[in-house]
Amino acid sequence: MTSPLYGQMMDVPLLASSLLSHAARHFGDTEIVSRRIEGDIHRYTYRDCEKRAKQLAQALIALGVEPGDRIGTLAWNGYRHLECYYGTTGMGAVCHTINPRLFPDQIAFIIDHADDAYVCFDMTFAPLVDIIAPQCPKVKGWIALGDASCIGEHLGQYLGNMEQPVLSYETLVTAQDGNYEWPQFDERTASFLCYTSGTTGNPKGALYSHRSTVLHAYGAALPDAMGASSSDSILPVVPMFHVNAWGIPHAAPLVGAKLVFPGKDLDGKSLYELMESEGVTYSAGVPTVWLALLNYMKQADVRFSTLKRTVIGGSACPPAMLRTFEDDYGVEVIHAWGMTEMSPLGTLARLSWKQKQRSPDEQRASREKQGHVIFGVDMKIVGEEGQELPWDGRAFGDLYVRGPWVIDRYFRRDESPLVDGWFPTGDVSTIDADGFMHITDRSKDVIKSGGEWISSIDLENIAVSHPQVAEAACIACSHPKWTERPLIVAVLRPDATLTRDELLAYYDGKVAKWWVPDDVVFADELPHTATGKLQKLRLREIYRNHVLPDVAEKAV
Ligand code: AMP
């Protein structure tokens, strides 16, 4: 007799490979379309993808890769990268996605710290591999994501003098027959390794498990999360080298959606054309990418014929962008928040039945926030004395989260980042009575004026809502009386005539008087991190000696 204490259901581990197997078996002929770095469009199906992922697993085993070994990837969004996702994790190794936009030294640090056994790379990154390989002596070999001839093309210029072997992915994969069963193992086994962008100090690794990856995929696919469906054609602009492209490579096979990969061409025209030709209904990306796409569409005077929804996150989605997508192009925007340490999804701004009874303005105000948690994430805001703050939409404090897809500790670091079992996000936010969270700042970016906090994101959003402003950042400038006051650094649109005083006057009536910035400077461009976020640390360095007008007057 079995004990009635335990349920009597099958004990099937939650493994990443099951996502692809499900798609291959139940949506076998659904397409995966990729714009390749070779320049052409490649198409095949989930069935083909699983076969090649299995061939890759066999090839890795033949190379001596063992369960638990890390396999790095330096690659754009494409079918071979997807095969790496599943081929590595499926055989029990760890897929370590590396952000190629980081500085070469940081990339070398990450590869060395992760102890990657092999690194798969798109040929566009051959010059980068050439630079970093000498700093990564533990790597046994570099696998070029192409056939032997594409390595040959680069050999003279790059890759010729490398100590470690350079192998052709296609040669390795096509040498195998794909007759391979995905092994079953403990669902707590490590699956993916993603490093944070590390604006300060060295990047830190978040090591996901198969269990967290599959639970996150379920959560991501829910109707009030990304709401992915087998009727969707999904184009993730968000890169697969940054937090698993927000889980889309897992959620899409889970629901059987068509996948469209843009490769390296992320300019407005290329994205628009691919969306149109592949009937894309759903996309996801950071605001900077959408800015480029919207600019292109305006200039070219074109419209979307199939795109219905897009997830925007990674940085605050400016309300002006949300309005343009929805009012001018009829595309629903889903504002989302998360972080590498959270796999990454935490909250999405999708309205409840109750919220949908309110006026259009109130509904939009809610949708401009970062939104409601999905099951799998709990959150709280905490004040300076560690006390939990009320959910009244006004009190703002440090945001803490917990859940089965939130990290417990960083890879290869002993000390736990948790506080009483909660992970401190480093973000500052409010939560309203609907449970909608609103990020006001990163804790280190918040502006402290006379002991009160001013939200730099709110002030940036107002600046970019001005028709002549393309992009804006708000940083703290030191002030002898108030400690800090807000300074706006703005990039104007071409042919703009906007002056400093006109932009400052634009704040009148939009925020409390003491929130109005003290000064505006115009710049040609703003610095961004490797993941497209504003680099405020760099901006604060640039404008460290900026003297605010009232301070200058008093000094005279
Ligand atoms: P990363 O780990 O690189 O994905 O960065 C995570 C951080 O990006 C978060 O802690 C936030 O500071 C910021 N972030 C992500 N999404 C949003 C959003 N929708 N609004 C504001 N900040 C965001």
Structure in words:
The protein is an alpha/beta fold and 556 residues long. It folds into two domains: 16-341, ANL, N-terminal domain (Rossmann fold, 3-Layer(aba) Sandwich); 448-555, GMP Synthetase, Chain A, domain 3, CATH 3.30.300. The chain contains 17 helices and 25 strands. β24 (483-492), α15 (500-505) and β25 form a beta-alpha-beta unit. α1 (16-26) packs across α2 and α1 runs parallel beside α9 (248-255). The mean pLDDT is 94. The structure holds adenosine monophosphate. Adenosine monophosphate binds next to β14, β19 and β20.
Biggest sheet layout = 9 strands, mixed
Q: Report the C-alpha radius of gyration, rounded.
A: 24 Å
Strand order across the biggest sheet? Answer: 2-1-11-10-12-13-14-15-16
CATH topology of the largest domain: Rossmann fold
Report mean pLDDT, rounded to a whole number.
94
DSSP strand (E) fraction? Answer: 15-25%
How many strands appear in the DSSP assignment? 25
User: Structural class of the secondary elements?
Assistant: alpha/beta
Q: How many discrete domains?
A: 2
Shape: globular
Q: How far is it from the N-terminal to the C-terminal residue, by CA?
A: 91 Å
By CATH, the superfamily of the largest domain comes out as ANL, N-terminal domain
Number of helices: 17
- CATH class of the largest domain, named Alpha Beta
Query: How helical, in percent, are the residues?
Result: 25-40%
Low-pLDDT segments: none
Bound molecules: adenosine monophosphate
In the CATH hierarchy, the architecture of the largest domain is 3-Layer(aba) Sandwich
Pfam families: AMP-binding, AMP-binding_C
Domain AMP-binding enzyme C-terminal: 459-533
Family: Belongs to the ATP-dependent AMP-binding enzyme family.
Keywords: Fatty acid metabolism, Ligase, Lipid metabolism
